[in-house]
Amino acid sequence: MKRLNNYRITFLLAALLISSAAHSQDSISKQPLLDVVYFSYNNSIPYVQVMARLKQGRKFDPVKGVTLKVYLDSISSSSLMTDKAVTDETGKADAAMPPSLQKEWNASAKHTFIAEASGVKEFEGEKAVTEVTKARLLIDTATVSETKNITATFLALENGKWTPIKDADVKIMIKRLGGNLTVGDEATYTTDSSGTVTAEFKRDSIPGDANGNIVIIAKVEDNDTYGNLSVEKTAKWGAPLTYDSTFNDRSLFGTRDKAPIWLLLMAYLIIGIVWGTLAYLVFQIFKIKKLGRRVV
Amino acid sequence: MKRTTQNKSKSFAVDTTIRLTEEQISRDLYPQKFGIRGKIWVAILVAICLIGAFAYYLQLKEGLVVTHMRDYVSWGIYISNFVFFVAISLVGSLITAIFRLSNVRWSTPLTRIAEIIAVSAIVFASIIIVVDMGRPERFLNLLLHGRIQSPITWDVIVIGTYFFISLLLLYLPLMPDLRILNRDPQKNPRLLNRLYRFGGSFWKGTKEQFKVSNRAITILCIIIIPVAFCIHTVTSWLFATTYRPGWDSTNFGAYFVSGAFLVGAGGVVVAMYVFRKSYHLEKYITVLHFEKMGRIVVLLALLYLYFNVNEYLVPAFKMKKPEEQHLTQLFAGEFAPIFWFAILIGMIIPIFILIFKKGRKPLPMFIAGVMIVIGAWFKRYLIVTPTLLHPFLPMNDVPQSYKHYFPSWQEWAIAMGSLAGALLIITFFARVYPIIPIQETINEQNEKAEQL
Asked: CA-based, 20 to 30 A from A44: which of A210, A269, B171, B202?
């Protein structure tokens, strides 16, 4: 009897597990996620990037084709930044600050960006809001007794004045083709009371352009108050890259007049030895002929 | 005559006891007129050649479009045939040079057979390359504007060199025989007399002449070996220097050379049997010659099988993605029947025939030789074509005809015409010149007599 009860309990547990698994499968619904992120590049015209993703379990799938209306501070036609932004296959769409809103932008140190989605069922009526405080990132380079330093200053607009931001993380990097490279040992530097970070440039041999120019970037990333800021400066600290074309050199893939010397030497030496020997053998035939004529 | 017939079936040891006079040797080995079978044989070969020539005329008129070669398979049956000819030509260096330098005396009756096979094969290897060119009138440009960096240029140079060496190696040992042929002009047609006089009227058989000639032959034998290895190694590099499935191998040179020795030796065995039968040369091409050639052929077949195992098993073990389709097509796909036919007929069955003493008798040897030659021809087809059907970067939206290749009738006719042409050269050579060196046989007979 006890054994039978054990079987019953096992069966019930299994059934429960199966049904709960089935239920959980049904219950994984697609949750729309809309985010607005602020960007400032070289302290010029700011822009926001809106990201549309669908959360399904632990997965985040970007959604293409979401039409977005982006507003500055309030939802009204007068504060509309754009109504034509559509997310691409990465689920992202950008909206730059239009000249018509310059006055509103300059009027305050703090602003709110509002994105309103439409065009895709799951995102119909979805809204996302982000608030930012205006900030500036300045970059400078200096060489002091053969030490190359990069200084970045992070300032926020407070009461109409640019005030240093203390204890903020700033990245200082060198811009490369496939990504950015740290200038020294540290990846991130923390601003001091003057809002400044100083990084020593330790990559002397890094190739630059033809004149040795490299681009140094200071970056603030995903700051809750100030958003994303980046600033670039060109410095002549790289090794000049001279493109050494081998196209006209002697090579195995060159034209016939550009065959490698070693190959020509080897080929002609072999041909010379073999055909020289053959010429000698032909001469031997004539010798045999001559010997034959002597015999009467 | 009765004694000779009895000796046919006996061993070489019995044959060596036969004292043949110089006159008898000269009579036995003197070039003979074609009999009725010979005439039919020549007529068939000429007919095949003419069909091939007509097909080539059509190709010249219409262009390479008459072939079934397209953008994928640009090297078809012609290049397979070229590789086959180059391979079979290598036998000249094996039988003549290697055996001569190793002081292997029993090979004397086979040297001229091997050399004429080499010369005829190399002639048609050169011709078939020109046939493969869409614009043959531009052939000279290859020489005038060829790049020394290209293996194709090396191939042109080395084929030309090998052809010249083979001609010399055929001609120099022939000079003493030309004196014999010149002895009795009434025996020969007028045209042949003129040919014999032109080639060898100056040969008087003096000690000095023999000395110069022997030294020249020894130098030729030394020089032909590296050139022969080069000719087939360079041919293999035409493929191996190209990064494609089935060709991308560091082993290709040795693999080609071993295969060439096998097909060449197989060709010599076939020719030995045919000449022995046709010209009743049982006293000269003996059972022992078959026995010894059988041992060499089985060794070469095992060697080539070993290289085949390396060439196919190692890539198959790794099954790299780009090689997978190519290997699958060979082992179990479209080319599987030809592949397994070539492996079985070209190597495995001949090995089983020749490994036994009874298999090394003339008739089984002839059958094994034919199998090796046929298997070798298909093997070259498999080396060239399937690889081309599997490019690394397939073209988009190509017609279906690009993805499969089966030669057109013109290609078959030209290829068969070239094979017939090579056989025709051998046949006419045997009609004009002694296929077994007369003077060398006499000299060896005299040496044996002195030793006894």
From this structure: A210
Chain A residue with minimum CA distance to B224: A274
Q: Pick from A250, A262, A264, A291 the residue to mutate for testing the B interface (most B CBs within 10 Å).
A: A291
A182 and A150 within one domain: yes
Gap between the Cα atoms of B62 and B290, Å rounded: 48
- Give CA separation, B53 vs A223, B69, B132, B245, B422, in Å: 83, 19, 14, 34, 14
Q: Which domain holds residue A267?
A: 245-283
Nearest-angstrom CA–CA distance, A24 and B397:
47
Tell me, yes or no, whether A125 and A175 share the same domain.
no
Q: Model confidence over B68-124: pLDDT tens digits? A: 999 899 999 999 999 999 999 998 787 889 998 998 889 889 999 999 999 999 999
The CA distance from B73 to B391, in Å, is: 10
Could you tell me the CATH number of the domain that includes residue A116?
A: 2.60.40
- From the list B258, B231, B285, B237, the residue with the least C-alpha distance to B29 is B285
Domain final position from A77, A107, A133: A133
Query: Apex CA B217: angle with CA B214 and CA B220, to 5°?
Result: 155
CATH at B269: 1.20.1630
Q: Give the alpha-carbon dihedral of B203, B208, B210, B214, to 10 degrees.
A: -130
Of all residues in chain A, the one with the smallest CA distance to B230 is: A270
B389 assigned to some structural domain: no
State the DSSP string of chain A.
-HHHHHHHHHHHHHHHHHHHHHHHHHH---EEEEEEEEEEETTSS-EEEEEEEEEETTEEEE-S--EEEEEESSSSGGGEEEEEEE--TTSEEEEEPPGGGHHHHHH-SEEEEEEEEESSGGGTT-EEEEEEE-EEEEEEEEEETTEEEEEEEEEEEETTEEEE--S-EEEEEEE-SSSEEESSS-SEEE--TTSEEEEE---TT-B-STT--EEEEEEEEEETTTEEEEEEEEES-SBP------TTS--TTS-GGG--HHHHHHHHHHHHHHHHHHHHHHHHHHHHHHHHHH--
A255, A259, A288 ranked by CB distance to B209: nearest = A288
- Residue B117: which of B398, B373, B445 has the closest Cα? B373
Which of B157, B206, B212 faces A284 most closely, judged by CB atoms? B212
Residues A79 and A120 in one domain: yes
Condensed to tens digits (0 to 9), the pLDDT of residues B172-208 reads: 999 999 999 999 888 899 999 999 999 989 999 999 9
Structural domains in chain A (count): 3
Domain identity same for A212 and A252: no
Residue contacts between A and B (CB atoms, under 8 Å): 69
Residue B84 and residue A290: Cα distance in Å, rounded?
40
Give yes or no for A264 touching B (CB within 8 A). Answer: yes
DSSP string, B325-373: HHHHHHHTSTTHHHHHHHHIIIIIHHHHHHTSGGGGSHHHHHHHHHHHH
Whether residue B78 is contained in a domain is answered as: yes
- What would the pLDDT profile of B226-239 be if each residue is shown by its tens digit? 999 999 999 999 99
Does residue A255 belong to the interface with chain B, where contact is any CB pair within 8 Å? yes
ipTM of predicted assembly, 2 dp: 0.88
- The amino acid occupying position A130 is T
Closest CA to B216 of B270, B165, B152, B251: B165
**Number of domains composing chain B:** 1
Q: DSSP letter for B392, please.
A: S
**Which tokens is B101 given?**
């330098």
Helix %, strand %, coil % for chain B, to 5? 80, 0, 20
Residues A212, A140 share a domain: yes
Of A75, A106, A133, which marks where a domain is finished?
A133
In terms of domains, do A126 and A39 share one?
Answer: yes
Percent residues over pLDDT 90 in chain A = 71
Q: Which amino acid is at B338?
A: I
